[in-house]
Amino acid sequence: MRRRVGQIRPWRRGAASAALALLASLLPLAAPAAQAQGSCLEIVLLEKGGRLALRASDGKTALTVTSERSVNAIAKEFLKVYEALDGNQGLDARFDARLELLSVELLGPLRPALREAACVVFEINPRFLHFALDLLPVDGEPLFLVKPTAFALSRPSPTAIEGPAVGGPLRGLIVRDPETDPENGAGEAQRLFPASDLLHIEQADPRMFAHADYDFLLISAYGSVTPSWGSAPADEDDVIELGERDMEADALDGSRFKLVYLDSSQLGISESFIASARRNGVRHFLAPLINNEAGNSSTLMIRYFFGGLSQGRSPMDALFQARRGIHQEFQGKAGRTERLYYAYPFRLYLL
């Protein structure tokens, strides 16, 4: 369920080896690198002999990194990271240490390639949906603030990575719940793309999306997800609340959207919605991983992201600039935990 403005939810649930700690100490972080002009680095996550293997390639060279710990242990570590974020717990030294050790173990040998890359795409399977890989620090900064990042379930095309959402002017179907979008970012998106249709949440019906002929879909509404953490098939109970009616993933069947933006809590780890979008030809799917906050996260992300699209940015670059913009907007106005909580939640999938 979406968290309202200003509502802070309590922590709900809760060591790396000495070798990893030593490795961390041997890899001091340098100053943040400038935006690189190289190609996009694609990193494929695989299970290999009970370990997690990351196969990285920039199209010219390839490198494989294998985790020291088991894939199950890595998954548990990322679950603890996810729970801390979703519970909006104050991010303390233990949280930082967990991220740093994960970064050293998984991304340490890839840091030179990451510094040179123009962008980073993580190709994952559904078991790894909760892995906050772009939150891991590289050269002292979270990766999502240093490079444009995206996720994929199979190898994305160059057009999906670099190209715009569609060619030419965009026309969208926009649905707004004032409680989740209190400052009317949806209205701003409609003004940026005036051929779009804007509906109040009470006007929306799950049946309206089938065979809808729009370039993009933007919904800001409450969402509910029951994560499987990769241990079971996609949960068909995942829904978006359209007033008194629930929208399930199969409501997208037959639609023609090329970009789907769901400002609904945790839809970024909904296997069923991601699969439905992919099945119906969606190229770009964006949604928050966690219970994000209305206003400082929801409205601002809509404003920045769709503003970027209106300037001709690709969805990956628009998200990158939006995250940086939100993070910078609260510099000196909010603490580190709040800034991360506002800027990080949304994830882009290249389908």
Account of the protein in words:
This protein is α/β, with parallel strands linked by helices and 351 residues long. It folds into 2 domains: 140 residues, Nucleotidyltransferase, domain 5 (2-Layer Sandwich); 191 residues, Rossmann fold. The protein contains 11 helices and 16 strands. The strands form 3 sheets. Strands 3-2-1-4-7-16-15-14-10-8-9 form an 11-stranded mixed beta sheet, with helices on both faces. Strands 11-12-13 form a 3-stranded antiparallel beta sheet, with no helix packed on it. Strands 5-6 form a two-stranded antiparallel ribbon. Strand 2 and strand 3 form a beta hairpin. Helix 1 crosses helix 3, helix 2 packs antiparallel against helix 3 and helix 7 packs parallel to helix 9. The longest helix has 16 residues. It is globular and about 50 Å long.
